[in-house]
Amino acid sequence: MKVLVVNCGSSSVKYMLFEMDSEKKVAWGLIECIGLPQAFYKRQTINAEEKKEAVKVINHTEAVELIIKELLDKKVGSIVGIEEIAVVGHRIVHGGDRFSKSVLVTEEVKEDLKDCFSIAPLHTPAHYDGILAVEKMLPAIPSVLVFDTAFHQTMPDYAYMYALPYEFYEKNHIRKYGFHGTSHNYVSQRAAAMLGKPIDELNLITAHLGNGSSIAAIEKGKVIDTSMGFTPLQGVMMGTRCGDIDPAIVAYLLDEYPQYKDGSTLSDLMNKKSGLAGISGIAGDMRAIIQASDEGNKRAVLAFEMLTYSIKKYISTYYGILNGVDGLVFTAGIGENSAPAREAVCKNLSALGIEIDAARNGECSSKERFISVKDSKVKIMIIPTNEELMIARESRKVLIQATNVL
Known about the structure:
Elements: E1 2-8, E2 12-19, E3 24-32, E4 39-45, E5 48-55, H1 60-72, E6 85-92, E7 103-104, H2 107-114, H3 124-137, E8 143-147, H4 157-160, H5 166-172, H6 181-195, E9 203-209, E10 213-219, E11 222-226, H7 248-256, H8 263-272, H9 275-280, H10 286-294, H11 298-322, E12 327-331, H12 332-337, H13 339-346, H14 358-361, E13 369-370, E14 379-382, H15 387-403
Helix pairs in contact: 1-3, 10-11, 11-13
């Protein structure tokens, strides 16, 4: 069985084709800058090296059409006919409180997804365009929606509610949703396999640390809290996002600075100009921050310390909420690749049984592995995330449940 995973951004389409019998990717690529005078198409297959070229792509439909033609190409393609694709899995960033699990696409589901436009205006309309584009190009192939928010829907109400008047929850659905759920789900399952125990016997803290970062507290396989909230802005400090701040700062900035005259300008400030980039004045990239820190840049040092401290606070809090932890997982760009960041996060957490092994932490490897000292009460792991594979698995599962196709 082959599964095509599609991830549509506002001006991009990323795809990956899996052979699910082996769970191996056979073709993958990205079209970006859709709608601009010049777009770019990068693609690769298991049998061919990466190829990149400039293309003219006006919309998502044209992008999907280009991808399907490439997959069917007699010389470099990976399928003979579209019927080889059993199902298409779509990554959806925000499912609101309407979607607590992956679903097969129907007309009713598409209408419900439209109701989520207002809570994720930068993402969900692009996802919707991608769904329509796939339906046009692959009319006989079923599609499944896999939501980043779904894994977090097990949070209890006292964890996901905000202390605002209750009517805002009832009318506007303002609550904590959490994000990166597909990643947290994948690495928690891998952590259970590495620890050799059923996931329903484990307490885990998973740290998805990239340009966007979130921490999740997972009790017996179910999320009981997570750091991101109504939007991905809440939580730890990130590459360009401020994370947790005193909400009164928003009102203060609106009063004191004329340029921040409305919600959109303030949102841009807090989402795109803050975090590592805002504090350091250099960049939101951890590698640049560490390099500048090593060269003595005090603002870069401050940015690094602020970010790792904010992560440490969430880990400590979730340890207490879970009443003990079996494993701590680092994943995503910073989590997988920044030894200094991991070391700083774990420093002085030995009272919680979190003890990192400096030598193991410093090893250069892209494989999942343990980096805690041998007698560490909490096992510290690096697990490369694989959201696309998780989406493919979910899509296959939903298809089988809906149609009994094997």
